[in-house]
Design brief:
CATH superfamily: Regulatory factor, effector binding domain
CATH class: Alpha Beta
Helix content: 10-25%
CATH architecture: Alpha-Beta Barrel
Mean pLDDT: 84
Shape: globular
Largest sheet: 11 strands, antiparallel
């Protein structure tokens, strides 16, 4: 039986469920958490190039979502498949998404570069970044260092969940940064 994620109780549970909390060099216990994310589906827009296009791409996705008649069940997010350390800015590959109910039909529109796809359940380390989406590097560094010290490794693309309107003033933005993690292979 398929379970629909997005009820009021699920949203409340999403905010409090986690597997364990660890302290790291004076951080409060709430800075970094490990949480298990259920299987989900997203309506997404494939993007390429500079991340400064984020507000424009979220607006474009919102328009496509409205036109499709599909209802979102949560805040928008973005998946980031590479970084400027890995690729030229023009080759950055990323997606903006809205979560949708699990029984939404998967598809992809090659012209619009939009679609619905399944995101498998995963375990992720997460941190809340407060401030501009353009200034998340210190939060990513803190999260990556924590992952490394815990004997874990990142095993998928980073995800940012935009908890506030991305167009709010920079100091009012809140972003949940998630890195999917798995046990690091210590054998070599």
């Amino acid at each position: 039986m398929s379970r629909v994620w997005g009820t009021k109780e699920d949203v409340q549970a999403y905010r409090v469920i986690f597997t364990f909390i660890m302290e790291f060099k004076g951080m409060s216990e709430q800075d970094i958490l490990i949480k298990d994310l259920p299987e989900r589906k997203v309506f997404y827009l494939s993007c390429k190039g500079a991340w400064r296009q984020l507000p424009e791409m979220l607006a474009k996705l919102s328009d496509y979502l409205s036109q499709s008649g599909i209802k979102s069940i949560g805040p928008p997010s973005g998946f980031y498949y590479n970084t400027p350390k890995d690729a030229a800015v023009s080759d950055l590959s990323w997606e903006v998404c809205y979560p949708v109910v699990l029984d939404t039909q998967a598809h992809f529109d090659k012209v619009a570069k939009t679609g619905v796809k399944r995101i498998p359940e995963t375990r992720a380390a997460k941190i809340i970044h407060e401030g501009s989406y353009r200034k998340t590097s210190a939060s990513y560094e803190k999260l990556q260092n924590w992952v490394n010290t815990q004997g874990l490794k990142v095993c998928g693309p980073a995800e940012e969940i935009y908890l506030t309107d991305i167009n709010k003033t920079n100091e009012d933005q809140r972003i949940e940064i998630q890195l999917p993690v798995c046990i690091s292979d210590i054998s070599g």
